[in-house]
Amino acid sequence: MNDLSRATEIANATIWLGSGRWMRGASVVFVDGVIMSVGAPARDLAVGRRIDAHGATVLPSFGEGHAHPQHAGLREQFAPVATAKSVREVLTNLGTYAALHPEQQWIQGWGYDPAIAPGGRFDARWIDEVIADRPVLLRAADYHTVWCNTRALELGGVNDVDGQPSDGEIVRRDDGTPMGTLREWGATRYVLDIAPPATLAQRTQALTWATQQFLEGGITWIQDAWVEQDEFAAYLALANGGLKARFNLGLRADPNQYLDQVHQFRDLRAQVDSLGDPFLTARTVKIFADGVLEAGTAAVLEPYHDCPHSCGLSNWTPGQLTDAVRRFDSVGFQVHIHAIGDRAIRMALDAIELTSRSNPAWDRRPTIAHSQLIDPTDLDRFYQLGVIANFEPLWAQLDPLQTELTIPRIGQVRGNRQYPIASLLERNTTISFGSDWPVSDFHPLAGIAVAITRQNVDGEPQAGWQPHERITLDQAITAYCSGVAFQGFTERYRGSIAPGKAADLVLLDTDLLAIEPLEIARSKVMKTFLAGEEVYAR
Q1: Per-residue pLDDT for 309 more than 70?
Q2: How far apart are CA 48 and CA 164, in angstroms?
Q3: pTM of the full predicted structure?
Q4: How many Cα atoms are found within 13 Å in the side-chain-facing hemisphere of 523?
């Protein structure tokens, strides 16, 4: 028998129960980490604590279907380039940071905007103007591109590379010398591999900071979609008491090492399971099938308009990708495949289909992350193959990344086919939402507003970008709550509001049913509850 003196009631609320069901002026009561009662019966209980919502909305706490929390936290520890609106501002910030940190042998900055230079081409000589004696390594907001100075190019041996790596691009000047922009792993590794790695202390600090940001945004379950060995160590260091949200780890598969990684990842998963931390799992393998459209590295079926000889980069051959998916699937890993271009998405679907035919049946829940440019002939295959389509809904707007880089690169026809969220929902595909943070803003309320309107914060375009792909408020909440819960194999205890579910809840400052869609982005999270504990209060 629960002791109601320990129970909490959120009263006078607009409550989203799940699956299109709402209650207004209702209560939800939870005790010992579990929802006890919802609706009229909840109002009659003599609870120890009562919170008046004053008509505002209560939702299940949000899930984050695809993010990189340690990247976000480390970005805060490096040179501040993410907020710069111009190349000159980046350089000014770099110079100031370098002057304040003479002890640092390398200067790093993460998250610069790749659209602030024409064609996304950044020159090493620009950085040399402010820092020439120390190597400088900057990572673009897409985390697929690096901009570095001449010293870093020299130390990495980039100047000695003939031609292009098979899985990357060294952007070159007209005279053939490396310009300073490196795209995808085959090119970026020359400098990434020699830059000083983050320490364990830096990583645990980054993860702790990022977790607090998630809680302030109402997020309590996160898919870390890119975990390397050193990042894995930070989770182990914080396990059993140090993690303040629920995390599932996506261990990154390498096309050159995946045969060995099958056994390594099983051992890492067993190590996590042995800890018995209810906030930590490692059931997923992350696979980068391609790059990104704005850099011309996403794998597309037809050539890019500004590079007719190029259909982008595939990080895996079709045979390799299928073999990797089959092997990881055979030992019980969920595959989470980054696939942005229509050719990469088709390769991912093909690999999943062949795997489902050859491997024994199980509840595999394969996920294709980003799902940006899907060939119309492949839309039906998502539902047919049981593939979860993960979207970052904030991207479904006409921002400078689209207007300056992506659409000019792929053309208007393909540009208008991006992010077909409604089209997949019409086909009964399971949709999950995320942010790819720190690539973009992680706040779910901002993503919900864009998913509903396909507009930017200024309400443009007036009819919405590809208005037939707009979705409803209920569908957007479902994607962030129930959809991510299903992706994470946690729908049994989270993702909706009902007796017996975990008390992972969020209280907003507004009634979402009473405001205009664009206003949703301005709504605030007032309280976040994780297993009944108030982990954030505004």
Answers
A1: no
A2: 67
A3: 0.96
A4: 30
